[in-house]
Amino acid sequence: MRDNPLSICEREFILAAVEIQKRIDGREPYDLRKIKITFGLDYGCCHVELGKTRVMAQVSCEIAAPKQTRLNEGTMFINVELSPMAAPQFETRSQDLNTEITRLLERSIKNSRCVDLESLCIMAGEKVWELRVDVHVLNHEGNILDCANIAAIAALAHFRRPDVTVCGEEITVHPADERDPVPLSILHMPLCVTFAFFHNGKCLILDPNEREERVMDGKMVVSMNKHREICTLQISGQMLLEKDQIFRCTNMAVKKVIVLTELIQLSLENDSNARAAGEKFGFAESVETNEITTEYKEESEVDMSDIDDQVVMATQNGNSEDGSIEELELDMETKVTIMFEGTGMIGQGGANTWDMDEDMESDLTEHKQKPQANSRSATIAKHIGGDLSGESEEEDTVMLQQEDIGLQSKPIISSEEPTGNEIDLTAALAKPRGKKKKSKHKH
Amino acid sequence: MAGMELLSDQGFRIDGRKPCELRRIQSKLGVFGKPDGSAYVEQGNTKVLAAVYGPHEPRGNIVKLQDKVVINCQFSMATFSTGERKRRPRGDRKSMELSMHLQQTFEAAIMTELYPQSQIDIYVEVLQSDGGNYCTSVNAATLALIDAGIPMKDYVCACSASYLDDTPMVDINYLEESSGGTELIVSILPKSEQIVFLSSNSRLHEDCLNKVLDMAIKGCKDVYLCLDETVREHMTQVSASFSAD
């Protein structure tokens, strides 16, 4: 299946936005998307989310003969899978992209010698460890390479190989229950940072998403480690650059790489602490199952510093005939909360103005009676209750989801005795209805 | 590699060159009759043949582009080009990568908008490989494109550089390339000094990048002089043969 082409309007919109340093997802030009690194139950399994781009890397090892040219070094093999699961167009024309990503990963990780391959030698010239890094792209939302590189490095750093003892000619591989597996020695962490160029190299953004990737002139990949060493550098695409632009990119890449390295180390630490303390770890812990992922909208800051006054003016004008300006202003004050200077939230605060019938109410009470029977409806019930506290709906959903998960993890307690949550619900239900009538009256 | 001195105390490299010295470049245009343009370039022991066909109607499964010409590049290395016999001349990952890089380089340099709905083929064959395959291929393909009379923004010249003992070295050979040191490959348009392609391998400290890049760009300009001389010589010969008729 071929991917849908981008419309000319969209293309021009993105280009125009980039020119005035804006991006379609609300980021600043040099911002990375949110990164989440999670590790699997097994050693050497890592799942990285960069915005909505998702990559999983799995490291495995086996004993094999060394290469004839390097007799006392282990070997490493990197394999990238671009399945149609990530994006439908990968079914057909992924060959070029696959080669590009694989080669860049090889150059970034293998050629920079970040894994001490000599320590993977068991018996010189006869038996060495053969590492295999399988990188699976699960979802393609742009910048697969950076995401894959983080996943591969984190997986290598997380990986433990079985311990081996050599006695004369005899090699014993100890299973994990006999001897603790040994981590690989990672000498440094090369991380890729991708820059996209627009308008023949004039405009520059970091971490392009899928749409930006489609309209960019070309990109520059810089792979660096935190010691400010460049491991791989590549410019590709049909653009012409000046020398200064390259140095600008490398300078910026250093800062990002330092942040990323810290993030990886932190998540590695968290994982090992969780393992040591016997807490939950692995994907089951981190994957939020009870969430509708498709409609989930991340909260983003909207610059409303210049809008506030206008809104107040407009509402005042509209309601001037009613003669209830004072009441309205009073209401405005209580309902709209400005969290920080210059930020605002659409749909935040205010009473619930959705029409609510008697049916719905009875529905909710029904759910209240059997709260754990259907966790989804329980969420809805609490959701409505949450409106009272004057927080935004989106924020509410996320918070309650977490509570919800907490509840689910100890289902026995909550099902046996009704918790405080449910008692709150009735109170919550009653009040929005009252407020709703009031607001209707005003209009 | 132990026991091998890539840069001697006297400041000479393994093949007797100074750090800022290029290998000898020999080049020739119009070496084949069949293609629209062809060239042969020797840089030291690296020998490359390039042939250009087109612009012509797109063939096979290549989709026409409405606004520009499709450039199709094929990089292959003869099975006898390296020390160990290669199993297959093309199709492995490294040569596919190089084909892609060549394609990107020439898409940026050729005035692609002049020939919409057509195709240009660039075939590059490495006859003998002694490091700098990409660079020599680019130089050979540039000459072949000039021979074919395809409009370009400028010559595209490529050169590699390395860094050893605080000394940047230009145009590195196979031994220097495979010793695990840095390899920086640049191709530029020499008149405007704009960078068309840049790629680097192995670790290099950020502070040294400037020096190495400068050295490589200087190398590219030197290559340009050699190539330009060949083209001018070729043109005088051709015009002489016309006027003789």
Description:
Chain B: This is Putative exosome complex component RRP41. The complex is a heterodimer of chains A (443) and B (245). By secondary structure, chain A is of the alpha+beta class. Chain A has three domains: 8-287, GHMP Kinase, N-terminal domain (Ribosomal Protein S5, domain 2), CATH 3.30.230; 297-370, no CATH class; 378-386 and 394-411 and 423-430, no CATH class. Chain A has 13 helices and 16 strands. Chain A is globular, with a radius of gyration of 28 Å. Chain A starts with 7 loop residues before the first helix and ends with a helix. The model of chain A is unreliable at 370-400 and 407-443 (pLDDT under 50). With 245 residues, chain B is of the alpha+beta class. Helices cover 31% and strands 29% of the residues of chain B. Chain B has four helices and ten strands. In chain B, strand 4, helix 1 and strand 5 (119-128) form a beta-alpha-beta unit. Chain B is globular. The A-B interface holds A 96, 99-100, 102-103, 107, 111-113, 218, 220, 224-225, 227-243, 246-247, 250-251, 254 and B 93-94, 96-97, 100-101, 104, 107-108, 112, 180, 184, 189, 192-207, 209-210, 213, 217.
